[in-house]
Every structure is written in C-alpha cells, then in structure tokens.
C-alpha cells in the first residue's frame, strides 16, 4: 500500500499535467520554495507567489509542447521524490531528459521543491543557457 503522500503527489502532478496550476499550488504551503539548478533559461529560485514566473518561460521556450511524465513516486511523512521524463520541442528539435523533483512535505503539502536533473548539461542544453 502506498503512503498517502505518494498518492497526494501523484494527484498534484496530475493537476499540473492537466494545466491546473492553481490546483497544483493548492497542495503547497504558503511559503513553499521552488529551486531549479544550473544556468538554464528556466533556472532560478521561486516562491509560491512567483511560481508562474518559472512556468512562463517553460511554456514559451517549448512553444507549449512541454510534457512531464511521472515515472514513479516515493514519499513518507516528511519527504518525497517524483521521478519524471520531460519532453518538449525547442528550435525544431525534440528535447528529452530524466529528472527528479525532491520535495519536503509539511502536513501533506509541498514546503520545498528542488529539481535534480540526471544530467545538468543535458538540462541546460535542452532549455538553453541564460
């Protein structure tokens, strides 16, 4: 049987995949932070209030083709890991890489979120460097 936070994360990621950004953010604490590493055009530190500032360039640079496929989810009371495959087109090329989102949870809500691409070089190549 899956931990309830595994189901919670799957539900939140399904909302995100369906374009329900508000639904995804409703599963985050008010002071949630989001960290995207590296020097990619989508890298940076974001808060719940500035989350859309992170998503805007993702949509723009991918021409709306960004897809995030959940491969697996692991979670307990305090932490979670979502393994993902990201796929999109940019500059006429299909871009694809595996990544992990590592989250800290408070009462079943995302308090902090950090992207951990399998290869930072592939990640930066996919999105372009700032």
Structure description:
With 130 residues, the protein is an alpha+beta fold. It has one domain (4-127): Roll (Nuclear Transport Factor 2, Chain: A). 30% of the residues lie in helices and 44% in strands. It has helices at residues 4-17, 21-25, 51-62, 120-127, and strands at residues 28-36, 44-47, 67-75, 79-90, 93-106, 109-117. Strands 2-1-6-5-4-3 form a six-stranded mixed beta sheet. A hairpin with a 2-residue loop joins strand 4 (79-90) and strand 5. The protein starts with a helix and ends with a helix.
User: What is the structural class?
Assistant: alpha+beta
Helix content: 25-40%
**Main pleated sheet:** 6 strands, mixed
What is the strand arrangement across the widest sheet?
A: 2-1-6-5-4-3
**Number of DSSP strand runs:** 6
- Which outline best applies? globular
Q: Runs with pLDDT <50, length 5+?
A: none
The tally of structural domains comes to: 1
- The CATH class is identified as Alpha Beta
Q: Round the mean pLDDT to the nearest integer and report it.
A: 95
Oligomer: single chain
As a percent range, the share of strand residues is 35-45%
Sketch the topology as an H/E string, one letter per element: HHEEHEEEEH
Query: Cα distance, first to last residue?
Result: 43 Å
């Amino acid at each position: 049987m899956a931990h309830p936070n595994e189901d919670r994360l799957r539900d939140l990621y399904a909302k995100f995949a369906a374009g329900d950004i508000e639904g995804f953010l409703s599963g985050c604490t008010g002071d949630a932070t989001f960290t995207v590493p590296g020097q990619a055009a989508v890298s940076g530190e974001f808060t719940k209030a500035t989350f859309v500032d992170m998503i805007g360039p993702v949509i723009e640079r991918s021409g709306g083709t960004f897809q995030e496929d959940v491969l697996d989810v692991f979670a307990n009371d305090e932490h979670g890991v979502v393994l993902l495959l990201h796929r999109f087109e940019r500059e006429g090329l299909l871009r694809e890489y595996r990544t992990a989102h590592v989250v800290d949870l408070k009462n079943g809500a995302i308090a902090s979120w950090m992207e951990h691409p399998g290869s930072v070089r592939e990640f930066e190549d996919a999105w372009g460097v700032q």
